[in-house]
Design goal:
Layout (H helix, E strand, L loop, with lengths): L2 H13 L3 E3 L1 H10 L4 E4 L5 H14 L3 E3 L3 H7 L7 E4 L2 H9 L6 H11 L4
Helix pairs in contact: 1-4, 1-5, 2-3
């Protein structure tokens, strides 16, 4: 993954007002259908990871991981952030375009959705 470029794109989305941070805000964005992409810190707790993975899977929201809470926080100008939701489709696609390696969560999402296509 091109770290600097992708983190810069996350920062751009934040400056555009198209990022929601924090567990409550991100879960509400997923529930309401405004989340186009969710980013979860690689060092998120197991409980947070499970809750967010399940919610994203049930609502078919792409979920990416790979950055630490400190990297995500720095990208959005905050001390640290475990969860971010991108609420603009174009910016979400731009950020996803910077992810060159499939992540564990993407693989789970892809295999989980294949069984639901009947």
């Amino acid at each position: 993954m091109t770290t600097d470029r992708t983190l810069g794109r996350i920062g751009l989305a934040m400056r555009a007002g198209k990022i929601v941070t924090g567990e409550d805000g991100v879960l509400e964005a997923i529930r309401s259908g405004t989340a186009c992409l969710v980013l979860i810190a690689a060092d998120a707790s197991a409980r947070t990871r499970k809750v967010v993975e399940d919610k994203c899977r049930s609502r078919a929201v792409p979920l990416l991981t790979g950055y630490s809470r400190y990297e995500l926080g720095a990208a959005v100008g905050k001390p640290e952030r475990v969860l971010l939701a991108v609420t603009d489709r174009g910016l979400a696609d731009l950020i996803r375009g910077g992810w060159t390696e499939p992540t564990e969560v993407e693989n789970i999402e892809q295999t989980g959705n294949e069984g639901n296509q009947r």
